[in-house]
Structure formats: structure tokens, C-alpha cells
Design goal:
- Helices cover about 30% and strands about 15% of the residues.
- With about 950 residues, it is of the alpha/beta class.
- The strands form nine sheets. The protein has a seven-stranded mixed β-sheet, sandwiched between helices. A six-stranded mixed barrel has the order 30-34-31-33-32-35.
- Helix 8 crosses helix 25, helix 9 runs parallel beside helix 25 and helix 13 packs across helix 17.
- The N and C termini lie far apart (about 75 Å).
- The protein binds iron/sulfur cluster (3 copies) and FE2/S2 (inorganic) cluster.
- One iron/sulfur cluster binds next to helix 4 and helix 5.
- The site of one iron/sulfur cluster has 13 residues, from helix 7 and helix 12.
């Protein structure tokens, strides 16, 4: 007897499609299928039960990621005691049921159904791009169809026109069998509702939007419909061009912090398509346009394919061997340290690189350079999360799995735009909202999530930029003053002294929604309504993004969020929690791996002698006990002349950091800048050594996503320049005289596990066995920790922190009357270096300035005008888009294109605790202009010159290290 009742007892092969989703009932039902006895949860379909028993029932309209629909009837079965031939996908099992899936009558019925489908289908299987990968073809074979009695001359859809408007997939309606899997995938999996079935009966067709081209519809190109389609109607263009893939490797997307798993499907050594992997614990087989389609940058002609060096940035590059490039870099670094001291050099790790690579760069700095001058791009995004969460709940990480959102009753999204920045998680969130959860969005801008059809209440708290702390205090004030606290949780889990101090503070009248209404711009009654929804309707879950952290009070706001969660007992179980939505793929990992100047891996402070001793024993060096320089300090020290050399792996600080002109001045001041990247990025234009980087497809390693989930990155193709990134860091360490001798990233992970208490149970073998692991993974939690803080906090009791609101100095005034805030959009990623080199640019070819109609009217501005945007540090010029998404007085732009100069205007105002820049608030003025800004003109000529230097690089025939 097969027992599939307890899912912990078995693992289902993610490559199999069991036909319908699992049932979650806790009651077991016993039945027989073709004589095989099986136990399954009540509510399971006959089709799924049969599949679990190893019996395949033919199907076309069913798939186990969609609710059963019952339209094709191919899955008919016979059930003893029941009349007719019920569809097995829509028929639930019942106790004692006896099912027969293979009888003469069923065989005839299924052949007849297939015959009807095939009579309206082009018979071009041999030349069809899906030949060999087509469910219709498979089913025709499975039911034994050999002939079509009706002929092919009757009414059909064979000359329907193909829609090729989407850059990545085509829609050929002549092959459509109207199974509606695509429509249901768009609704149920993606949550976009871009597709419908138009017409009835024979005239039924799939229509995008209002019967438009896919590109003109609401379609966001996630690919869910393409994956769902059982025919070649919806098909990746790459498969049409290259052919059906032959083999695959499971790996992890290198774009955002969701960390979706994909099957990289190959033909020979060519990557044909990325198919979201159903076994991926973060994405369960879903994807967004970036991970699914935007991988073409990996083979783009702009890839740096050989190491290069030069004496000064006013010289062309010289292509040299790896050995010579590494020697050149090492000699420069040694020379600078000899002349200017140990502290005069440093390194920057990358949140796009793997954990192992990041670990190695900070190790190189601490052990090879002999100082703690290491930092990472999290400095400019989530460093306040580290500070704020460590102070209050003791661990710098999100508390939940993504799946936990399915248990949330009220979802509070603060300063995040999940549909654009974390799209696959947004689809899951939308599913929960459709089931009836309440939604509260605190954001100056109207985000798409607010337009999601949902069962519960939806509230938009459109606060003024820079007033987050005032809003969180007002919400907490309502919780305390209206008696909505979870007193039991507070008594059990929180320090009483800190709690009482905080309670006294938060009750003060100055923190009431009424007192803060003028400051935040949010009506007091809305704040009260939101607080009641979050605090008293079952499970309240908070998700936040860079709209929380990138402020002068970023760390205060993170603490305010933790206070609110503790006060309402919304921590330590499924459906609740405090969840930073991490931007880049491995921001969590780069922080975990000790990238910050004050912390060794696992957030262990360099000032702690016991911690240092463990590292020193394994690394065989003395570790400096003083924290090193943060990125902004490195820039200041470079300009002041104390800091002379920098190794930057996979980051583009010249584009991504604020106050571009200040950054450029710092980079130009360096004697030696070593950049390791896949392209000549903005930072590399200031470099003396350019080391080719490897894409995620070209290496082994791990990424850690926003749920603390460690996922394997597996090599799909050979590195274009011959080395994975960790090998380059190792070579540099060895050339500097600090020995590193790893032969595979798994050995680096073994070392990480030895030194990091939250990683002691992590190994590649365990990752391969479990698929992924959420840290902490150690003796206490051998298989990882999906939900944190269930029993206590790492600091024992939760610590309430007083969060006094201090208005940002970056306020609007007569000279700069508008507030600029920045963000991302779905199709582009971060500085755009990857996505700009893909077809994704069709959706976003330039950054624009969004401005409210009233502000535009006041200035005589029309849509499409060129606007000069000036702040107290600089000016740039962007094209105008008039939009009602913002409040009056607020303008918005993205920073995906370097020439836009969005960061020329952002200032170096920053978070008081961590120096995270205040990207989200810059006081600006806008006016109509006719030409680019002075900075943009300089950028264009510098850019041309640097590309010229690259194109005219010489080889190493006349190379000699000086
Ligand atoms: S690609 Fe995604 S959004 Fe577009 S129609 Fe298909 S499922 Fe819907
Ligand atoms: S396009 Fe594909 S998935 Fe959609 S109805 Fe047609 S055959 Fe079914
Ligand atoms: S949601 Fe993020 S991780 Fe997933 S496919 Fe998109 S970019 Fe990649
Ligand atoms: S698979 Fe069951 S009706 Fe189509």
C-alpha cells in the first residue's frame, strides 16, 4: 500500500506534473486505482492520486500548478458504482473508491477526443519547433491516435496570424487547442489577468488585453503562460531559433533577492532557455521577465574577455595574461602599502557574486591586506536593516519564508514595490490578497500592488518622503493607546525596562496620528484604521524595502518596524514577521559573509577577541581589532590622499553610489583601482586593472535570498575568460603572499561553516540533498530555520528602542521646492549593466522624471519635455513623464541608465547609524531645458574616450611590469 498522506514521508520529483495541486487536508482517504491501494489527503483529485501511484492518465488542460478546470475531457476514468466517465482532474477521491484508468471504452473515448483536436491542428510536427517537447504530440501517442477520420478540410483556425510582438516569445493561434492553461496561469500563478478566452465554442480564441498584441496588453512577460502551454502556440523564440534543449542544470537566478530556481536548458554548450524550476523553494516554478528571459547579456559582445592593465586612466588598455595582470595588481598594492601604510588600501565585495566569492574578498582584505577596509553595496541599501534588526530582535535578517505570506491576514508593505522589484514574491502576495487578506501600503507613490483585485481592505498611506518614522510612531501610538498590544507576548518575550521606556515615549501626544498628520500628510483616521487592521485582524506581516532604509533615519525606522511587530506579538510564527525585501540576489549573503568593516562572517564583531582568535587560528594571521573604512569614508580618505588603492569585485560604485561627482573625484584620486567585472562598467572607466568577471552561469557557488535561503549556483558553461571569480581573488591573495589553496567553492563553504555559528550545518552535500537551506543551520536546527524567533530572540528578550522622529535636513524650500525619490522598474535591474544588454530595453530605454500634473502645470511642463533637475549637489536632465502616481510636490525617477545621472543629484545625506545614503529624499527644482547638463556632456565625452581605449587596447607584446 502506498501512503502519500504525509508529505514529509516522501519527496515528489519536481520534474513530474501530477496534474492538480496538492490537497492540504489532514484527513486521509484510502482508494484503489487500477488495483493499487493508496492513501492520500482528502480533497486530492483522482488524477493526482493516480500519478502518485505511478499511473499516468492522459491530460491536456490540467497541470499541477493550476486549479483543475475540466475542459478537455481527455482524463476521463471509470469509477465503480458511478455512471459515465468523470474527468479525473476535477473528481476528488473518496473513501473506498475503485478507479479504472485503462479500459477499452476509455481508450476509444480518448482517441475520439484527440481526433477532434488534431483535425484542427497543423500537421507540421516534424518541422514544428516544439517537436519532441509537445504535450499534444505526446498525448496523441499516448492514446494511440493513428488516423483522423474527419479530414482537415472543414472549418479550422490554421491560417490564424502569429503575434510576434513580444521580444521573447511568440503566439501562434493556429496551434491553440483552447485549453485555457495560459489564461489560468496568468491569473492564478502570475496574478496579472492579461489573457482571456474570447468568443464561444468553435470561435473561442485566446486574447491578450482588449484583443491586442501581447506587447500592447497588460502582459508583464513573466512567461507563466508560455510554460503552461501544452502546444507550441506560446513558445520561446530562442527555442524556435535554436531548437529543443537537450540537457539542463538547476541553478539560481542572479537578479533579485527572491532567488528563483531555474533549469538552465542547453543544447550542446548553448543556453537555449531558462525554465523556472518547480522544485525551487522560493519560486515554486514561477519566474519574472528578468530571470526567465534576460540572460542574453552573458554572451553579449561587450563582455570583457581578457585581463587588462594600464598606468593611468588617460591611456588605452593593454591586454595581458592572467598572470601578468595579477602580478601587476599585487605589485601596485604592495608598493602603495609600503609607501602609505597598511590602511591605505581596501576592497569592496559584491552582492551579485556568490557567498563564497564574497567571503574570499573580505578574507583577502583582512588577511592579505591586513586591515578591515572592506565594505559592500549593502552600505547603500540594507545596512540600516542590519543595525535596526540586530538592536531590537537580535538578528539581521527577515524572519519568515516567502510561503508564510499565505497565512497573513493583514499585509503591511512599507517603502517597497514588490511587483517591480520582487515580482515572483509579489505574485504569491497577490494570491493571498485575492484570498481575502488586507493590504496596507505606506509609500509616497501609488504602486501596482494597490491595483490588485483583493478580497480584504486596501489602504494607501501616501506619506510625504522622509516621514517614515513619524508614521510608524503614529501607528504604534494607536496600538498602545487603543489597547491593541499583545500583552502576553510582551511579558514573555521582551525586556520590561526597554518596553516601559518605549511605551511611555510612544504614548506621548506628539506621536499621535493627529499630531503628526501635517508632517506625514496621512489623514489621522487612515492611520488609526491601518493600525487596527494590522494589530487586531489575525496575523500581521510587514514587508519593507529601500523606501525604509535609504533615509537619514533608516535605522530608526527599522527599529520602529520591529517595535510595532513586538508590541502586537506579530513575530515567531507563520504568517507574521518583519521581512526586509532585499534588492540584489545576494545582499543577504554579502552581509552574512562579513563584508562590513566591523563584522567578520556571521555578524561577529572584529572587536571581540574570542571571535578574532577563532578566525586567526584558521587563517593563520593576526586580524586588526579596529573596524575599517566604510565606502563613504573610503571616498573621503581617497580625496584627502590617505586611501590610495581599491579592489572592487562586481560592483559599480560610480553609478550606484550617491553624489556621483564626489565618487568620481574619489576614484580619480586613487593610484590603483582594480575592477573585476563582466563589462566595462562606470567604475571600470577609472580603473588601472580590469579583471574579467564570470556570470552566474559560469560558476559554482551559493546565493542567499531575502528569506535567508541558501541556494546552489551551478556552472552551466565555462567562464568566458577562463576563471571563476573566486579563483581570481585567490590568485591575487597568493600573489600578495597570503596563501589560499581552494580547489572548489565547496571547500570555501566548508570553511565558512567552521567559522560561522549560523552556518555550521551547511555543506554542498546537504544543499544537494535538501534543495536549499534557510540559516541558521546548526546542531540546533540541522535542516535550517524557516521561521525565526519562535521561542526566543538571539539576544534573549526583544529590545524595544525609542524612535524619536527627527525631520531630515533634506527638506524642500523655496530654492528646491520638490522632493525627488528614486526606485526601480520591473524590466531593468539595478544599474542596468545586465538588463540594458538584453531585449528588456524595449520596455525601458531611458530613465524619465515622473511629475504630478499640478507641478507640471505650474511650470508649463508637458509630457516628453526635457527637464533640468537640480539639487544642492548637481544637475542632470531627464525627459518628463506626467503621472498621477506621485503626490503633488514629489518627483520620481529610476537609475538604470548611467547617462541619466540620477545620482548626480542625490546627496551624501545619510542614515545616522550606518551611512546608508538618503536616496529617497532629495530636494530639487525642475525646469524646462533644451540641452544635456554639464555633467552629462562630460559623461558622454569621458564615456566615448574610455570605450575608445578599450577598443584600441594593445596586446602584451611590449609588456613589462614596472
Ligand atoms: S507572460 Fe505572464 S503576464 Fe504575460 S500573458 Fe503570459 S502569464 Fe500573463
Ligand atoms: S495558447 Fe496554449 S495554453 Fe493557451 S489555450 Fe492555447 S494551447 Fe492552451
Ligand atoms: S523574481 Fe527575482 S529571482 Fe525571480 S526570476 Fe525575477 S529577478 Fe530572478
Ligand atoms: S485534463 Fe482533465 S479535463 Fe482536461
Amino acid at each position: 500500500m502506498l501512503n502519500y498522506f504525509d508529505p514529509r514521508e516522501y519527496r515528489i520529483d519536481p520534474n513530474r506534473d501530477l496534474g492538480t495541486p496538492p490537497a492540504l487536508s489532514e484527513t486521509a482517504v484510502a482508494l484503489t486505482i487500477d488495483g493499487v491501494e493508496i492513501h492520500v489527503p482528502d480533497g486530492t483529485s483522482v488524477m493526482r492520486a493516480a500519478a502518485l501511484a505511478g499511473i499516468t492518465i492522459p491530460k491536456l488542460c490540467a497541470s499541477d500548478n493550476l486549479e483543475a478546470f475540466g475542459s478537455c475531457r481527455l482524463c476521463a476514468v471509470e469509477i465503480e458504482g458511478k455512471r459515465g466517465y468523470p474527468a479525473s482532474c476535477t473528481t476528488p477521491v473518496s473513501e473506498g473508491m475503485a478507479v479504472h484508468t485503462q479500459t477499452g471504452k476509455l481508450a476509444r473515448l480518448r482517441r475520439n477526443i484527440m481526433e477532434l483536436y488534431i483535425s484542427d491542428h497543423p500537421l507540421d510536427c516534424l518541422t514544428c519547433p516544439a517537436n519532441g517537447d509537445c504535450e499534444l504530440q505526446d498525448m496523441a501517442g499516448a492514446v494511440g491516435l493513428r488516423d483522423v477520420r474527419y479530414g482537415f478540410d472543414g472549418a479550422n483556425h490554421l491560417d490564424a496570424e502569429t503575434d510576434d510582438s513580444n521580444p521573447y516569445f511568440s503566439f501562434d493561434p493556429s496551434k491553440c487547442i483552447v485549453c485555457s492553461r495560459c489564461v489560468r496561469a496568468c491569473e492564478e500563478v502570475q496574478g496579472t489577468f492579461a489573457l482571456t478566452i474570447d468568443g464561444r465554442g468553435f470561435d473561442s480564441t485566446v486574447a491578450a488585453g482588449q484583443d491586442e498584441d501581447f506587447m500592447d496588453s497588460e502582459c508583464v512577460s513573466c512567461g507563466a503562460c508560455v510554460q503552461a502551454c501544452p502546444t507550441s502556440t506560446l513558445m520561446e523564440k530562442s527555442v524556435i531559433e535554436v531548437g529543443v534543449p537537450e540537457h539542463s542544470v538547476v541553478t539560481t537566478c542572479a537578479y533579485c533577492g527572491v532567488g528563483c530556481s531555474f533549469k538552465a536548458e542547453m543544447k550542446g554548450d548553448q543556453l537555449v532557455r531558462m525554465v523556472p524550476y518547480k522544485g525551487g523553494d522560493a519560486n515554486h516554478g514561477h519566474s519574472c521577465v528578468k530571470g526567465r528571459f534576460a540572460f542574453g547579456y552573458a554572451t553579449h559582445k561587450d563582455r570583457i574577455k581578457e585581463p587588462m592593465i594600464r598606468e593611468s586612466i588617460d591611456q588605452p588598455w593593454r591586454a595581458v595574461s592572467w598572470e601578468n595582470a595579477i602580478d601587476f595588481a599585487a605589485q601596485r598594492l604592495k608598493g602603495i602599502q609600503a609607501e602609505h601604510g597598511r590602511e591605505s588600501i581596501g576592497g569592496i565585495t559584491s552582492s551579485r557574486c556568490t557567498n563564497e566569492e564574497t567571503y574570499l574578498v573580505q578574507k583577502l582584505v583582512r588577511a592579505g591586506f591586513g586591515n578591515n577596509n572592506t565594505d559592500t553595496c549593502a552600505r547603500v541599501c540594507h545596512s540600516p536593516t542590519g543595525y535596526g534588526l540586530k538592536t531590537t530582535i537580535g538578528e539581521s535578517a527577515g524572519t519568515q519564508t516567502f510561503d508564510s505570506v499565505m497565512q497573513a491576514d493583514t499585509i503591511l508593505v512599507i517603502g517597497a514595490n514588490p511587483t517591480d522589484a520582487h515580482p515572483v514574491f509579489a505574485s504569491q502576495m497577490r494570491r493571498r490578497l485575492r484570498q481575502g487578506a488586507n493590504l496596507i501600503v505606506a509609500d509616497p507613490r501609488h504602486i501596482d500592488l494597490l491595483d490588485t483585485a483583493h478580497g480584504g481592505e486596501g489602504l494607501h498611506l501616501a506619506l510625504k518622503p522622509g516621514t517614515n518614522v513619524a508614521l510608524i510612531n503614529a501607528l504604534a501610538h494607536v496600538v498602545v493607546s487603543e489597547g491593541l498590544e499583545d500583552t502576553d507576548f510582551i511579558a514573555r518575550r521582551c525586556e520590561p525596562g526597554a518596553y516601559n521606556t518605549w511605551r511611555e515615549f510612544i504614548q506621548e501626544e506628539k506621536n499621535s496620528p493627529e499630531a503628526l498628520e501635517a508632517e506625514t500628510g496621512v489623514p489621522a483616521d487612515k492611520v488609526r484604521q491601518a493600525a487596527r487592521l494590522y494589530a487586531s485582524v489575525g496575523n500581521g506581516a510587514i514587508y519593507y524595502g529601500l523606501g525604509v532604509t535609504e533615509h537619514s533615519q533608516g535605522s530608526t525606522m527599522v527599529m520602529g518596524i520591529a517595535n510595532l511587530a513586538m508590541a502586537t506579538g506579530n513575530l515567531g510564527r507563520e504568517g507574521v514577521g518583519v521581512n526586509p525585501l532585499r534588492g540584489q540576489n545576494n545582499v543577504q549573503g554579502s552581509c552574512d559573509m562579513g563584508s562590513f568593516p566591523h563584522e567578520l562572517p556571521g555578524y561577529q564583531h572584529v572587536g571581540d577577541p574570542a571571535v578574532r582568535e577563532r578566525f586567526e587560528n584558521l587563517w593563520h594571521v593576526k586580524i586588526d581589532d579596529e573596524p575599517g573604512l566604510r565606502i563613504p569614508n573610503m571616498f573621503d580618505a581617497a580625496i584627502a590622499g590617505h586611501f590610495r588603492a581599491l579592489y572592487v569585485q562586481g560592483e559599480d560604485i560610480a553609478q550606484s553610489d550617491p553624489n556621483t561627482q564626489h565618487v568620481e573625484q574619489a576614484l580619480t584620486s586613487l593610484d590603483c583601482l582594480i575592477v573585476q567585472d563582466i563589462f566595462l562598467n562606470e567604475t571600470a572607466k577609472y580603473a588601472h586593472v580590469l579583471l574579467p568577471g564570470a556570470t552566474f552561469l559560469e560558476k559554482n557557488g551559493t546565493f542567499t535570498n531575502a528569506e535567508r535561503r541558501i541556494n546552489r549556483v551551478r556552472k552551466v558553461m565555462a567562464p568566458i575568460a577562463g576563471k571563476e571569480d573566486w579563483e581570481v581573488t585567490q590568485d591575487l591573495a597568493n600573489a600578495l603572499g597570503y596563501a589560499m589553496n581552494y580547489s572548489h567553492p565547496s571547500e570555501i563553504m566548508d570553511e565558512i561553516a567552521q567559522l560561522t555559528p549560523t552556518f555550521t550545518g551547511v555543506s554542498y552535500a546537504k544543499l544537494d540533498e535538501l534543495g536549499s537551506i534557510q540559516w541558521p543551520c546548526n546542531a540546533e536546527h540541522p535542516d535550517g530555520t524557516p521561521t525565526m524567533h519562535e521561542v526566543d530572540f538571539p539576544i534573549g528578550k526583544g529590545h524595544f528602542a525609542v524612535t524619536e522622529y527627527v525631520a531630515t535636513p533634506e527638506r524642500s524650500n523655496r530654492r528646491y521646492p520638490l522632493l525627488l525619490t528614486t526606485g526601480r522598474i520591473l524590466s531593468q535591474y539595478n544599474v542596468g549593466a545586465q538588463t540594458r544588454r538584453t531585449e528588456n530595453s524595449v520596455w525601458h530605454s531611458e530613465d524619465v522624471l515622473e511629475i504630478h500634473p499640478s507641478d507640471a502645470d505650474l511650470r508649463g511642463i508637458r509630457d516628453g519635455d526635457w527637464l533640468g533637475v537640480s539639487s544642492r549637489v548637481g544637475q542632470t536632465v531627464l525627459r518628463c513623464r506626467i503621472s498621477e502616481r506621485m503626490l503633488p510636490g514629489v518627483v520620481y525617477t529610476t537609475f538604470h541608465h548611467p547617462g541619466s545621472g540620477a545620482n548626480v543629484i542625490t546627496t551624501d545625506s545619510s542614515d545616522w547609524a550606518t551611512n546608508c545614503p538618503e536616496y529617497k529624499v532629495t530636494a530639487v527644482q525642475v525646469e524646462k531645458v533644451t540641452q544635456p547638463s554639464a555633467w552629462q556632456k562630460h559623461f558622454q565625452s569621458f564615456d566615448r574616450r574610455q570605450h575608445d581605449y578599450l577598443e584600441h587596447s594593445s596586446d602584451e607584446s611590449n609588456f613589462a611590469i614596472k
